[in-house]
Every structure is written in structure tokens, then in C-alpha cells.
Write a structure and sequence with these properties.
The protein contains 9 helices and 20 strands. The protein has 389 residues and is of the alpha+beta class. The chain folds into 2 domains: 230 residues, Rossmann fold (3-Layer(aba) Sandwich), CATH 3.40.50.300; 127 residues, Beta Barrel (OB fold (Dihydrolipoamide Acetyltransferase, E2P)), CATH 2.40.50. It starts with a helix and ends in a 22-residue tail after the last strand. It catalyses: ATP + H2O + polyamine-[polyamine-binding protein]Side 1 = ADP + phosphate + polyamineSide 2 + [polyamine-binding protein]Side 1.
């Protein structure tokens, strides 16, 4: 990267926030590259919204600094920062038509001739034919796009998005994910997006910071976070993972031989973030869709060199594109396996004896000192985010 392209980076240095004795965000360092689509992902109360609000100037950090490019904006009020924020509640003016809603920021700055800019912005969000409509005449997804247009017309260097799709139904949310990504690609402005929705972050973002309890647990491209989680929280929070307790029996070159109960598994040493000495405890991870399932009668047909476990099917759920199985194995109860519905085997029903097998290269290893169920989503009665969100 040249100096020209790094000037627009968002840099957080030692940024932290406490409320009395409660630490919402532990001091963290984060660089968000200019022109990228960046997601802060985490469960309610993890510190992601507080971090976003510190970038916006809506929350004063207890420690650290916020830089936009070379400019230290830590002490600047929100209206003096080159950022705009889109919230979950779009806050459109109900008495103004869409044209005037989008023009609002320009008029406030005393710009008289706004027609061309507003038309261009409405075309960008594909709402050129809705200029004379009032907000209540638009769908939730259209109102969301108006809010984005209103924020972008001020040409901020950074657009902050705080759970912007949270109020939409699932199908519309998926459409808007693609729409927001298209808009970001066209305008080339840095988007920083806060969400608790893993699929949303993975669909849209170039880079994702997974936050947990006020800290960045892991940072990386979506595919890398999914394929190579470094903690049990990331393994469980991003999709589902089967985590099996095992012990390192031997190490030979690039491969670790593991003992899990009576079974033997192998793991690429490069994919293990735990200590790799003989006798060390490790959590063996494998994603449900990476596992193949064979009826016990067909065990002899499984190719050599694959990791394998025996078990019994306890539940099977047909969900269209795949069937999701739950399997109890002597080494681990409640293993999840997702099998695509290409050629369904009617024998794989609850009670069936089966063999789970997979390519050892798809296995990852985590430090067994961590909580095995960290990041597993629990059903909560209160969906609201608190101060540490």
C-alpha cells in the first residue's frame, strides 16, 4: 500500500471504555483499511456497539485514541468527524419525501443546488423512481436504502452501520446484505458494520473482528476465521463445530497422532493452536458439513487414511438442502453432521449404527484449557443490548 491509500485508514490505538467497575471494551488496537467493508461481530454485550460509538464520537473513550488517516479525532465532537452513522431505526423524517430526506444533510450545510447529487444518490440505491414518496410508502428494505443514501451524500470517509438490517425479515435481510455490499463496492468508502449475525458478517465483510467480552477474539477474512478458528469461542460462534477431547499420542513431521477414547485421529500440526507436545490435551475440531456418514454395514468401503469415529444416530432433521444428524459416539455425545441431500440413505435413521469419517486436513486443534462450549449461543429472553454492546 502506498501512503496515499493508507491515509484513510481507521486506527484505534489502545482504545477502551469502562463504566464504573464494568469494562465494556478492554484496550484494543485495530486498523480498518481504507475502502474496506469491515465487520465487528459478536453477541449482545460484547463491546462492538461501544467500539463503533467511540469511532463516531458518540461515546468518549476511557483510554486510547481514534485516528482517521493521519488525523487524531479522539477529542472531536461527532459533527466534526468525517463519519456518518446508519442505525437500526432509520430515523427518516416522516413529513419529508424521499428526495428531501436524502437532501437534508446537504441543505444543513447551506448547499442550495442539491437536485443532481440527490438524483445520483437515489440511483445508486436503486430508488430513483421513489423520490416523491413519503417514508411510510416504502418497504423496510427501501427505507434502509434511503438511510444509507442520506448518510453517503455527505461523502463521509467512513460509514458506520449499527445493526442496520436487524429490523428486516430474513429474506429481505439477505437481499439487503448483497445490496449493501454492492453499494460499498461502487462508492469505495470504508464501511464499518456492527452485527451479531454471523452470516451477515461473512456475506458482506472483507475482514471480520470477532468480539467477546470487550476483546477482539480473532481478526481475519471470513473464510480464514471459519476454517482456522484459534479459540473455542470463534469455532462455536461462527457456525457450528464438533469439539472432541483428545490427547497427543505422537508427533511425526507435519502430523499429530491423537488418542480420543479408544479411537485414533490425526491432525495437521499447522492447524493446531494448542501446545503440541506428547501427552498434551487438545480439543479436536471438525465442522459438521466436512463429515461423511456411512452405515456401519458399509464401514469396509471407507478409504484408508481418513479420520473415523463410530456412533449411533440419535436424531435426524430434514431441512431441504441437507439432513442434519445428531450422533452419540463413545468419544463424544451430540456430534453434529450435515449431509447434502444428493443420494439419501434411508438406513441413516435414529438408532442406526454409523461411522463418521473425514479428511484429516479438515481437522483443527484448539487448546483444551478453554471452555469447550464458549460461543455456543444460548436462548435469551431479553434481546436488547446493554451499555457494553
Amino acid at each position: 500500500m502506498t501512503d496515499d491509500t493508507t491515509r484513510g485508514d481507521v486506527r484505534l490505538s489502545g482504545i477502551g471504555k469502562t463504566y464504573g467497575a464494568f469494562t465494556a471494551v478492554h484496550p484494543l488496537d485495530l486498523t480498518i483499511p481504507e475502502g474496506s467493508f469491515f465487520a465487528l461481530l459478536g453477541a449482545s454485550g460484547c463491546g462492538k456497539t461501544t467500539t463503533l460509538r467511540m469511532i463516531a464520537g458518540l461515546e468518549e473513550p476511557t483510554s486510547g485514541t481514534v485516528h482517521l488517516g493521519e488525523q487524531d479525532v479522539t477529542a472531536l465532537p461527532p459533527y466534526k468527524r468525517p463519519v456518518n452513522t446508519v442505525f437500526q431505526s432509520y430515523a427518516l423524517f416522516p413529513h419529508l419525501d424521499i428526495h428531501e430526506n436524502v437532501a437534508f444533510g446537504l441543505r444543513r450545510r447551506g448547499i442550495k443546488s442539491v437536485k443532481k447529487q440527490v438524483a445520483e444518490m437515489l440511483d445508486l440505491v436503486q430508488l430513483g423512481d421513489k423520490a416523491k414518496h413519503k417514508p411510510h410508502q416504502l418497504s423496510g428494505g427501501q427505507q434502509q436504502r434511503v438511510a444509507v443514501a442520506r448518510a453517503l451524500i455527505n461523502h463521509p470517509r467512513v460509514l458506520l452501520l449499527d445493526e442496520p438490517l436487524g429490523a428486516l425479515d430474513l429474506k429481505l435481510r439477505r437481499q439487503m446484505q448483497l445490496e449493501l455490499k454492492r453499494i460499498q463496492t461502487e462508492v469505495g468508502i470504508t464501511f464499518v458494520h456492527v452485527t451479531h449475525d454471523q452470516e451477515e458478517a461473512m456475506t458482506m465483510a472483507d475482514q471480520v473482528a470477532v468480539m467477546n467480552a470487550g476483546r477482539v477474539e480473532q481478526l481475519g477474512a471470513p473464510a480464514d476465521l471459519y476454517e482456522n478458528p484459534r479459540t473455542t469461542f470463534v469455532a462455536n460462534f461462527l457456525g457450528s463445530s464438533n469439539l472432541i477431547e483428545a490427547e497427543i499420542a505422537a508427533s511425526s513431521g507435519d502430523t499429530l497422532a491423537l488418542r480420543a477414547g479408544d479411537g485414533k485421529l490425526s491432525l495437521p500440526a499447522a492447524r493446531c493452536s494448542a501446545p503440541t507436545g506428547t501427552g498434551e490435551k487438545v480439543l479436536v475440531g471438525i465442522r459438521p458439513e466436512k463429515i461423511s456418514l456411512a452405515h456401519a454395514d458399509d464401514a469396509g468401503e471407507i478409504p484408508d487414511g481418513r479420520n473415523r469415529l463410530t456412533g449411533r444416530v440419535t436424531a435426524a432433521s430434514f431441512i431441504g438442502v441437507s439432513t442434519q444428524y445428531v450422533i452419540d459416539s463413545p468419544v463424544c455425545e451430540g456430534l453434529e453432521v450435515y449431509v447434502q441431500n444428493v443420494e439419501r440413505d434411508g438406513r441413516l435413521a435414529p438408532g442406526a449404527e454409523v461411522v463418521l469419517h473425514w479428511n484429516p486436513e479438515h481437522t483443527f486443534g484448539l487448546d483444551a484449557a478453554q471452555a469447550i462450549d464458549a460461543g455456543v449461543e444460548k436462548v435469551e429472553t431479553d434481546s436488547g443490548e446493554g451499555a457494553g454492546a
